[in-house]
Amino acid sequence: MKIAVARETREGETRVALVPELVEKLTALGVEVLVEPEAGYGAQISDDEFVEAGAEVDAGALGNVDVVVSVRPLSADAVRRLRRGTATFSFLPVNQEQALVADLRDAGITSFSMELVPRISRAQSMDALSSQALVSGYRCAIVAAGMLRRFFPLNMTAAGTVHPAEVVVLGAGVAGLQAIATAKRLGAVVRAYDVRAAAAEEIRSMGAKAIELDLETLEGSGGYAREMTEDRAARQMELLAPYIADADALITTAAVPGRQAPLLVTRAMVEQMRPGSVVVDLAAESGGNVEGSVPSEVVRIGNAQVWGGENVPAQMPGPSSKLYAQNIVNIVTLMTVKAEEEGGPATFAPDFDDEIVAGACVTHDGAIRHEPTREAIEGPAPEAPPEPDPAPDATTPEDQPYDQEADQ
Ligand SMILES: NC(=O)c1ccc[n+]([C@@H]2O[C@H](COP(=O)([O-])OP(=O)(O)OC[C@H]3O[C@@H](n4cnc5c(N)ncnc54)[C@H](O)[C@@H]3O)[C@@H](O)[C@H]2O)c1
To answer: CB count, 10 Å around CB of 49?
Structure first.
């Protein structure tokens, strides 16, 4: 079994799907590791480091392996270079990548989407959404601290006291909790709000104050948030406005799976903030939690500088690559049968009865396996033919086999 590490081709992507320190985890199973030249360039990892770790650098790697791993989806051109039956692992946002999904289907590729890995306990070590959200959350707090032209912590000096910064975090999932923890470690006073019922306790466990609003909590399936009604959204904005007006830094990380990010903060709410305040909108690229935020830009709204996040984990490619690579090694290992004897070859053998394998699979054997994506691309499934009339009941006396002995 051979696995190739692709060099990322999407603009601004600095991460790499495998790091040298994890190569041995795969070679120990009997997997040969090939790396496209300069695959680690953006993450400051040289080809030599991969070679020292036991990998081979090969410009033609993609066309010559059983499995290809990348962070972002492969380009259509790279898909054309794969052998039929090759498996790919990457982030693959199926709603935005329908043309590529059709290419993967037509090329007979078995593609797995890291976004679709079910969020069950057994799959936690493969949960790349969480590992990357951790990086994003940390980065958001650091960006806010860097942009704010004042201290985060309290300083009591002979010259007088400097009060700590007031930070408000909206959305307390994986990224939000990490932003809270980071801002707390820097000494800020942190308040946070999330629509989920369990969130208040999680916020307090990070040492922050939970903002309690007189609103019902919103929980959908799997412990995720649900979309808000317009009325609730308006009421939430009204109740949050005074907290935001009082904040030196506002960090927003709210998301609802499969939807555009909810708008939580209007331009008018930002205009109420004091001179010098900062806003960090992690959701800028998926619609924005803050009205007027622009991905990858800092814009001025009223007195505030508003920073829009775009592919934030790529701003810290070292740790985000390492965490993602760990997720990748764990999911590939789940589908690999180890070599029987030392030095022998491993086999790539995904078990489609396993809910992690079935859940994460997008295309396989010329078909789209992920039903909502299949329907979006190919249309509704043809109606099943009507059930044939039930067979006559074999237990009725006239259907009983003729018992000759009884007749004798
Ligand atoms: N393997 C697992 O079991 C697993 C893995 C990761 C996360 N989780 C859990 O799933 C939940 C969410 O995780 P996530 O970070 O991936 O979520 P996410 O990125 O989908 O959303 C981020 C946060 O935004 C919040 N949000 C949505 N709408 C909001 C609104 N209008 N106002 C304020 N906040 C809003 C959500 O409740 C969520 O906490 C958490 O409870 C987390 O612990 C479980």
So the answer is: 16
Give the burial class of 100: count Cβ atoms within 10 A of its Cβ; 0-12 exposed, 13-18 middle, 19 or more buried: buried
Does the 2-126+317-378 domain belong in CATH 3.40.50.1480? no
User: Which pLDDT score, from 0 to 100, does residue 295 have?
Assistant: 97
Cα of 31 from ligand 1 centre, angstroms: 36
All structural domains of the chain with their residue ranges: 2-126+317-378, 136-315
Cα 213 from chain centroid?
29
Ligand 1 contacts CB of residue 225 (under 6 A): yes
Residue nearest to atom 37 of ligand 1 (CA): 225
Q: Is 356 in the pocket of ligand 1 (CB under 6 A)?
A: no
Could you tell me the pTM of the whole model?
Answer: 0.92
Tokens 């959908």, located at residue: 220
Ligand 1 neighbour 202 (Cβ under 6 A): no
pLDDT at 391 (0 to 100): 60
Q: How many CA atoms lie within 13 A of 114 on its CB side?
A: 29
pLDDT tens digits along 125-142: 999 999 999 999 999 999
The region, left, alpha or beta by phi > 0 then psi within -120 to 50, assigned to residue 395 is: alpha
283 CA distance to ligand 1 middle (Å): 13
Structurally, at CATH architecture level, domain 136-315 sits in 3-Layer(aba) Sandwich (3.40)
Q: Do domains 2-126+317-378 and 136-315 have the same CATH topology?
A: yes
- Residues 398-408: pLDDT tens digits? 444 444 444 43
| Segments in the chain below pLDDT 70 | 390-408
- Phi, psi (5° rounding) for residue 241? -50, -45
Residue 269 has, within 13 A of its CA and on its CB side, a CA count of 23
Share of residues in the chain with pLDDT > 90 (%): 86
Q: Which amino acid is at 4?
A: A
Question: How many Å lie between the centroid of ligand 1 and the Cα of residue 311?
Answer: 18
Catalytic residues: 119, 124, 127, 130, 224
